[in-house]
Amino acid sequence: MLKKFWIVTNDGKDTNHAVTEKVKELLEIAGRSCILCEKDAEKNIIRERIPDMIDCAIVIGGDGSLIEVARTLWKRDVPILGINMGTLGYLTEVEVSNLAEDITQMLKGDYLYEERMMLEGMFPNGKKDVALNDIVVSRKGDDLRIIYFKLFVNGELLNSYEADGIIISTPTGSTAYNMSAGGPIVEPTASLTVITPICSHALNTRSIVLSSDDEIVIEIGEGRRGNIEKVLVTFDGATSVPLETGDRLTICKAKESTKIMKINKISFLEILRRKMKGN
């Protein structure tokens, strides 16, 4: 039974914390313990103040808020329930209009878990970071020049690129930047990796779908005149790490996954259909 809940609120969405307080009230009436997330002055989660024992994290906001929590709780195997405070989301599944009914259903144990694959990126210095949506290599700063890089898969050169960047996406992230860049939409519980160049300077460059077991290496090349290229590696649009010519980024499937709590019976295809209809 889920007993201890950690509630994370997007203060820009639930401005007066009315939804947050309602969720807290519903949980406490049912005899559950709940702790509100503590943030710093810049609205960042204070990791040191996250409780050691959590049965479930409830995120009040949008998909971006849920992704932030998923990265924050990496390696802790805590299921996440999203309460949608924005437009129709792919990850935040509880609507405010059904809040009491859905929370009650969850407390009765009527829910499922979806395991969502994550990507792990490792840098030459051994440091690592993870992404639920995507890892993006792009130009650094205001430089409008294309960047040059090589892509290796399992140690074998796949292609050399001249492009604005490249997106390495999970199935969950296939409906985000990957889709905007012309990449394929993938069923989110699948286990594979999508590679989509950004504005590639080649006519025959398309997205590539690989097994999640494949190891991907991106090597930053020299500029056209032999100059040092400077790029940024960004994880889920949040943290960024600079790289330059000669550096390598290794990407593989993370050992840990994100556990998304599913309460309603709306399928991914139904959400996708609504999104397409809305556009």
UniProtKB/TrEMBL annotation:
GO biological process: NAD+ metabolic process; NADP+ biosynthetic process
Location, primary (coarse class): cytoplasm
InterPro entries per the UniProt record, alphabetical: ATP-NAD_kinase_N (IPR017438), ATP-NAD_kinase_PpnK-typ_C (IPR017437), NAD/diacylglycerol_kinase_sf (IPR016064), NADK (IPR002504)
GO cellular component, one term: cytoplasm
Cofactors named for this entry: a divalent metal cation
Reaction catalysis annotation: NAD(+) + ATP = ADP + NADP(+) + H(+)
Superkingdom of the source species: Bacteria
Catalytic activity, EC: 2.7.1.23
Family that this chain belongs to: Belongs to the NAD kinase family.
Name recorded for this polypeptide: NAD kinase
Annotated source species: Dorea longicatena DSM 13814
Lineage: Bacteria, Bacillati, Bacillota, Clostridia, Lachnospirales
Gene: nadK
